[in-house]
């Protein structure tokens, strides 16, 4: 009898352990150091990608402020490739808090007002995501990233079964113009076997969709905003354009002429202007920060560096890492953009605009939006690409180019093609639109989630 009871007891205990291991219970954040009192739950931790537990991705999940189980899930991905959705997306853009000194302050325009926000540090080697064998950081490419992100999502929903039936949206910016359409295509493929995901829309902010169009719109942007002279504009469009420069650079075959043109461009544009928002001042202390793949020559440039400093300090606190259930494996410090990830940079040249077309054809709404002060992936290139895609898909304009409103001001411009494809700008916004224009970004995001037109009046 005693033996049987023990058996039952150990079985119960075993089942309990199994449940805790695969459930979200252990990932619940009791409180982040310095956070204000809030009425929503947060979770963070790891989702292991492989059986041997060698590769694992870190996520941060913020439930919606009101009635989370009736709200959609939004997966947010930052670009780089190699930059952190936790540090940039959650703590500088659209998350509930922003670090300020020793505390976290509320972001009034947090997107968890409208959705459950899932921030993923991807690919492997970014932020707190890690592999136990560092060979996993080598040769990471778009394919590997998309597959890992899909496996992550499958396993994340096992941890959070209560969210299984919720609508899923995916949004992000910059190089996520590769990650998101590629992941969405894989989701659609996977759904054709078994309907696991309720994908209801994707939003791409200042995305890299077609390398040459996106990159070559930089010259005109610089020129029309007074960052380069007439003569340099000519050099930068006829002698060596930016797509040629980047293409040579990543092949290790930089020609003397392109090198010359870029050095003139760099000198005129100045490293004391933030290319991710040409109207923003730079944070002088951090001008010499990390490089970005999208700006290979400008190893001194970065996005909002002062907020980044706050985030770097905050996420490197031991008590914060403990509260987040985060581990640093093979690294001493959490970094905004990975320095161990060795990404296949030439994947930059893979056009993803056709994948965007396939997603529209599958009946999924797509929004391409642009912070209009960004010179790295300027609005003009994105607008051209969306317009061309609409023509290819034979979608006619359902809502002509017009302004939209946030508060009592113009929030930007928008055009809609057919029922599913739209383009919008966010006026006065940077490459990281929700960072510099949080209110306007939230208005845009809300109408995207609800599938409603952007406000035509105020
Ligand atoms: C790491 O992975 C590589 C490539 O798969 C393999 O050759 C190597 O033995 C692994 N190292 C360890 C320590 O497991
Ligand atoms: C990615 O996967 C596709 C389809 O399997 C394949 O055709 C392509 O060559 C792969 N690309 C890379 C860079 O591995
Ligand atoms: C999800 O929907 C399916 C089919 O409508 C239903 O059988 C299942 O119980 C739902 N699951 C949850 C967790 O709500
Ligand atoms: C950029 O340069 C490449 C190589 O010289 C050329 O093929 C391409 O047409 C140029 N693009 C633009 C927009 O000028």
Automatic annotation (TrEMBL):
This is Carboxypeptidase. Residues 1-22 form the signal peptide. Its EC number is 3.4.16.-. GO terms for cellular component: extracellular region; vacuole. Keywords: Carboxypeptidase, Disulfide bond, Glycoprotein, Hydrolase, Protease, Secreted, Signal. Probable carboxypeptidase. It is found in: Secreted. InterPro entries: AB_hydrolase_fold, Peptidase_S10, Ser_caboxypep_his_AS, Ser_caboxypep_ser_AS. It is an enzyme of class 3 (hydrolase). GO terms for molecular function: serine-type carboxypeptidase activity. One of its GO terms (biological process) is proteolysis. Its main location: secreted. Belongs to the peptidase S10 family.
